[in-house]
């Protein structure tokens, strides 16, 4: 199916990324359908919320019917990913092939595995040894194979750890900002003096929307626009400057429950803890050059995130 400006854009998954992508697409003037398992949630102008379960072939086909571009932003509980994500991929990829739609996939850095501080570019080898890293690499190989074999037009956008308005379940999320604003504990992981990239959720949304509008980017992995890496301690210092008082930083040097992350999550996350004991440095220069864009500066990200969390805390007061 050829892409036109009037084609329906279908976003699968209404977590922070899916919601941000749907909102961005609507702002760009596209007709948007946002699909999740409940079909409920805040209304967004120009976004049609629909109930659907894309873990089955039938559900995925119904969810994307009529789409010109599909955005796969579905995630599942961390401890279920290795089991469930391949099943979702099979259903979504099959539905996209049958519909003739293009597929934009929100991806992670997991396929690279341990980099020992090497700057991650799109040419970095995939050396994952953890179960979730190997699973993600296998999914990505299947996506790219579908493109090479002309079964579907596919493009992947990789992000570092999310940060930004609406982001709760991130190492720079609900374990950090509420404590920073209220004088409570701010929980961090591993060595916070190592450089660590964070990607603004708004840049994730804009980057995926750009890939959805730009078929010439298909058939490969792109790193979504990510601000230059700072150490986590430097980021916390920027937060201190903004809230006007020192943070009560608590650093966990091994995986155990903290903040929004319970024992079940941390048990599943333990194999990925290397991300906090070595530098995590992402370069998005290829995307920035190809699509003439720039990442959102970290200061702007923190301003917007603190404002969002202030509103959240006020609602809960």
Automatic annotation (TrEMBL):
Listed name of the protein = Epimerase
NAD-dependent epimerase/dehydratase domain location is: 13-214
InterPro entries assigned: Epimerase_deHydtase, NAD(P)-bd_dom_sf, NAD(P)-dependent_oxidoreduct
The residue stretches assigned to a coiled coil in this entry are: none
